[in-house]
Fold this sequence. Notes:
By secondary structure, the protein is mostly helical. It is 74% helix and 0% strand. The protein has three domains: 1-132 and 161-189; 204-396, Growth Hormone, Chain: A, CATH 1.20.1250; 406-479, Winged helix-like DNA-binding domain superfamily/Winged helix DNA-binding domain (Arc Repressor Mutant, subunit A, Orthogonal Bundle), CATH 1.10.10.
Amino acid sequence: xxxxxxxEAQSAWLGARRLSVVVxxxxxxxxxxxxxxxxxxxxxxxxxxxxPDRTVFGGVAAIFVGLLACGxxxxxxxxxxxxxxxxxxxxxxxxxxxxxxxxxxxxxxIVACSLVAGGCVAAWGFYFRSATxxxxxxxxxxxxxxxxxxxxxxxxxxxxxxxxxVGLALSMLMLxxxxxxxLRLPADxxxxxxxxxxxxxxxxxxxxxxxxxxxxxxFILVITVNSGLMYQVVNPAxxxxxxxxxxxWAVPYIVAIYLVKNPAIKVNRNYMLYVALAMxxxxxxxxxxxxxxxxxxxxxxTLMLSAFGIYDLFWWSILGEMLDxxxxxxMMFGIGLSANVMGVLLGGVIARAVFAAxxxxxxxxxxxxxxxxxxxxxxxxxxxxxxxCSLLKSHAxxxxxxxxxxxxxxxxxxxxxxxxxxxxxxxxxxxxxLQRKTYKMIGRELFISENTVKYYVKNIYAKLGxxxxxxxxxxxxxxxxxxxxxxxx
Length: 489
């Protein structure tokens, strides 16, 4: 009976996860190709002899507002589901307007759709958390990013090489599919369609979570300034390679995400972040010196989009794991991704306003700015890594903290791993207790107050049925085969 119950739970878990991935991928493909600097929207406007620049900028700004506002309006899984079920038909109806000749309502429709679309992305945070187990959300994030971009390529190629209206019709079919499948999404975490996930919202250290999120958002904002420069400076320089840019643009992005998700060799993913920074710098340097041939486009785009794929998967998966530390996942997910959109907006504004000079000066100035962004990002990575390690030590992109090498930390707390009653944070505190660190040292390393450390220690002792640190050490030693715990620093 017990094994059967576990099997049924795992089946429901996988079913809910797959469903959430498909729904969001179908919707995201429409959003990426139509609203967010999308080629399909660009083709529709150009076919009408109009310039889409202002409308595109307004749409991206509206996505930013929608991402931020969603957390204040959507507070439950049921309300998130209702938003999706109302929004997808709205998007289908709004898209149908673009089959008719251009009119003054095109711009407002794009802005309205973008505002609601930003809210839908943030609202999906509820299903990101409930449908995927902890420490596996990088896989879900990777699948969503890969499939949404593959479908976006299909829509872009259809719009460019067949007809914009045909691409639009195909995107509307994807939205219809997203709506039909969204009807099967659970209305709350306890519905039969999903398995309720353990959420550690009862005892998070709010300042630690808040400071980690703030630093992560600053990091995302800074590095995605380069994405804005890419949209406004790099992509237009190679726009004459219509056939190549219509499909290859996102290919390196997809391949990079797949390789990070499924590395061929054992590799420290944290080092990939530094490699990706070097790739961005090299891409902009190459952009200055190479010509505007197809071969040059392949070099610049491959370097740049591969790096962006590595970083997008990084913060999507980090935000996914951080959802367990908040009561409203739509708010945290929306805030994190809004930093991404704001970086794109900021890069675009700078490219237009500051570098409105000759083409040669714009290329050189944008490259200098991009390299400055790389340097700032390089300075932000170590403190960001340290902050995130205090919350998400087991995340695939993170390496063990400064408390000791992986084998030493695993050995010191390994004997306590069987006590499933301990939360992840309590195990982190227990590992440091076993190293005979003081409460003050533990608080400094985990970025929490000394009183919070005492709170966790009290819970650890109560759950393990012990009264002191020495009893904790004896328990760990007996269950680990008698190894001594590592000494304090």
